[in-house]
Amino acid sequence: MNAGLVAVNIAIGTTDMIILVLYLLGVVLFGSWIGGRQKDLSDYLLGGKTLPWWAILGSIVATETSTVTFLSVPGIAFAPGGNLQFLQLPLGYIVGRFLVIMFLLPLYFRGEIYSAYEVFKKRFGGTTERVSSLTFIIMRTLADGLRLYLTALVLEKVVGIPLPLCVVVIGIGTIIYTCLGGMKSVVWNDCLQFVIYIAGAVFAFAVIINELPEGWSSYQQFAAANHKFTMFDFDWNFAKSYTFWAGLVGGMFLSMATHGADQLMIQRYLGAKNQKDAARALGFSGFLVFAQFALFLLLGVALAAFYATFPPVTPFEKPDEVFASFIIDHLPVGVKGLTLAAVFAAAMSTLSSSLSSTTSALVNDFYLPLTSTHKQQSELVRLSRVFTALFGCAQIAVGIASQSISSSVVGNVLAIAGISTGLILGIFFLATFSKQASQASALLGFVIGLTVVLYVAFAMKQEIAWPWYTLIGATTVFTVGILGSYFLPQSQTLIEE
């Protein structure tokens, strides 16, 4: 995740440009139409709780697939020595999601809630709810503003217009259909965008195989000779990111955090017709993400075989550049535009979901509890649209400001965004498994957990790889919260059974 991700010389023809522009306009129009009219907050923030499980499944997968994922995961397998070991991580994702279904998902279907952090209000009190929600809002806005910047880098190279204007164009397009269509627009657009970017990856893979001298045989021979199909590494070295143990344990905790303690995903479950449908979507999403990553990695192996056969004129500075370069240089007219549309599909699905989830957290965790006046549902919907637009503007501001941030800082900030969900997961563990933990002990655990995980991430990053950060944060919060409950005031509230 760095600014060099798409630092390639890109230019496209008129046909592909028209396709790209029509796609961006189509997304806005489709999202505005499919969302329909929203009469109340349930319609706007949860799609009226009428969303089918398979649409939620597509939305979950599309939301966790950003432009960075679409372009950089192939680079992992492309790189010298690269292989399929990244797939050890989604193995942990599958396990983590089933643990969420067993232990955390039931919390969200006890009563009428709109925000994940309302659970904390019922169990601990309003302060814990607002601290957790504010952490989510800040880190989500910052991280997705940076993702917007990375996506705008692609548009800048394609169209040749200034980077700030690219940030504004993508940001405003996403704001419009999210504001007008609400959560229903976000979910259905996610499904459409999932199909587009998967189709783009499959077609690119097919083009590469067709270009190799002996087709599939050349691909297999290259992969075997360079050990590209190696998947498992059982080394206990905690500094290595892609080992079986880092994938299984670290990936499990990471998935529990991102899919069990993050409003971005929880908002989708709450839009399901019932808990059973939410569980079905979440359970299948782990297997679908595994298959998706396998496709991206196999595509990376194909890119390595292609460029070993047809070396580029100028060597690539970073593996992340390779797929973007191939799209521009080797895909046929028309398909090139559609595949570039897939790049923006991956980005806009994540950004729109971010706008909807941060709005939901702000309205339900801050505005409604702190206002003393009763608002009509139609007025709350209008207010939510205003908050959506403001969060969109905040993302645009972060995206523009990111021009002055070094690539290493960008990577660190995105890493911290992932770390924060581990802290919140620790509070969920306290809410689920400890009856005596109080608001005071939960907040103490949060503060100490934040201190510990930041130290590990920055001072020990050479010794401990990032997949372990969520585990460290969650276990620290939980352990300190349990210990603190023995000498701090006990909680006066419990989650309703």
From TrEMBL:
Catalyzed reactions: iodide(out) + 2 Na(+)(out) = iodide(in) + 2 Na(+)(in)
- Name the predominant localization: membrane
Q: Which domain of life is it from?
A: Bacteria
User: Where found, per UniProt?
Assistant: Cell membrane
Q: Where are the transmembrane segments?
A: 6-30, 51-79, 91-110, 161-180, 192-209, 242-261, 282-310, 383-401, 413-433, 440-460, 466-488
Q: What is this entry's stated membrane topology?
A: Multi-pass membrane protein
- Keywords from the named record: Cell membrane, Glycoprotein, Ion transport, Membrane, Sodium, Sodium transport, Transmembrane, Transmembrane helix, Transport
Task: Write down the Pfam families for this protein, in alphabetical order.
Answer: SSF
Q: Which CDD domains match?
A: SLC5sbd_NIS-like_u1
Q: Which family does it belong to?
A: Belongs to the sodium:solute symporter (SSF) (TC 2.A.21) family.
Q: Which NCBIfam families match?
A: sss
How is this protein named in the record? Sodium/glucose cotransporter
**The species this protein was found in:** Gimesia maris
Species classification: Bacteria, Pseudomonadati, Planctomycetota, Planctomycetia, Planctomycetales
